[in-house]
Amino acid sequence: MALNYLWIAFFLIAFVVGLVRLIFFGDVDVFPDMMNATFDSAKTGFNISLGLTGALTLWMGLMKVGEKGGMVKIMSRAIGPFFSRLFPELPKNHPAYGSMMMNIAANMLGLDNAATPVGLQAMKELQESNPNKESASNAQIMFLVLNTSGLTIIPISVMAIRATELAENPSDIFLPILLATFFSTLVGIVAVSIVQKINLWDKVIIAYLGSFTALIGGFIYWLSTLPKDQVDVVSKVGANVILFSIIIAFIAMALRKKLNVYDTFIEGAKEGFSIAVKIIPFLVAILVAIAVFRESGTMDFIVNGIGHFFAFWGFDTRFVDALPTAFMKPLSGGAARGMMVDAISTFGVDSFVGRMASTIQGSTDTTFYVLAVYFGSVGIKRTRHAVSCGLIADFAGIVASILLAYLFFG
């Protein structure tokens, strides 16, 4: 329901702002630009879905090998005590545990193409335990918010863009992004837990979160002892080595059980295409609304207003130039990436604004994209508190990014 209201609001606000620009400022191009944006974004939505087909086919097949080989069950047992507290409505050793863990691990390693297919698999498995098929369950909402908070240890895509733009040290945003995504995820978990009345003071939850915090702290310390060029190598190579090792482990476990690995892979892979087709209308719908909202000029109006507000009170307003990336991040990953590149091109890749925009880009995932794709893949129509909790996590990540940028680069 929240997505329905938001979708309508994007169009109505864009229409009003477009009329104001046409009538009072004589901008005759505003409505043609908005209409062109609808066609372009519809094409983009289809292309994204089409591009996902191969990745979905591959990872659905691999997840089926892991499931039947027993590797997913091992992963489920490892995180079972923690997830049983965060997902109290799921039975012990539920198959979604393994898929969710794979999804979260891929997101942490910055491997978006791998994360989405296994995330869709997890959402499908969660839907099987959902008593109301059109309304998001508590477990589905918690999982979605964990995704939208975008916990990332190795931000490969952001560093790759900075390297392309000839940054002096492309990985200098590594630590700010790591910390920003950690705060975003933590706030997301707390927000959902409050709504769903999950006891965060449970000793198991504290133990897992505490251990994870210590692990991140140790990882940060180890990286801080390495030369800058080695940090970049560890980031790029380490993520893919870990992921390929998981694939090999899946195959090895399947061989140990004497499964026909190829046939098992094909069995799971067949589901990839149907899911890719199913998400097309949901993805096109949200991308069209976002494109119209952006092309109407509403985004520029909001950013300029915030800049004037903080300037009036005497605050440092350098962060305002990075806000377009922040505003677009929950709406469209591609648009946010474009805003980041624009900020880098305008102010410089190693400028304060360029680094802040890069940190914001890596701080969270794209809430409405994830919501449209994940919920759309299983036919969820009522999102309940998923949008509000996801945006709270996004807000925490963006605020943390701004503060950390001042701390590291200010």
Short description:
The protein has 18 helices and no strands.
List keywords for this structure.
410 residues; mainly alpha; 18 helices; 0% strand
Write the layout of secondary structure elements.
Layout: H1 2-25, H2 30-69, H3 71-86, H4 96-108, H5 112-128, H6 138-148, H7 156-164, H8 174-196, H9 203-224, H10 228-256, H11 261-278, H12 280-295, H13 298-312, H14 323-328, H15 333-347, H16 352-363, H17 367-377, H18 386-409
Helix pairs in contact: 1-12, 2-5, 2-10, 2-11, 2-12, 3-4, 4-5, 5-17, 6-8, 6-17, 6-18, 8-16, 8-18, 12-17, 15-16, 16-18
Structure notes:
With 410 residues, this protein is mostly helical. The chain is globular. The relative contact order is 0.16. The chain has helices at 2-25, 30-69, 71-86, 96-108, 112-128, 138-148, 156-164, 174-196, 203-224, 228-256, 261-278, 280-295, 298-312, 323-328, 333-347, 352-363, 367-377, 386-409. The longest helix is centred in the first third of the chain and has 40 residues, at 30-69.
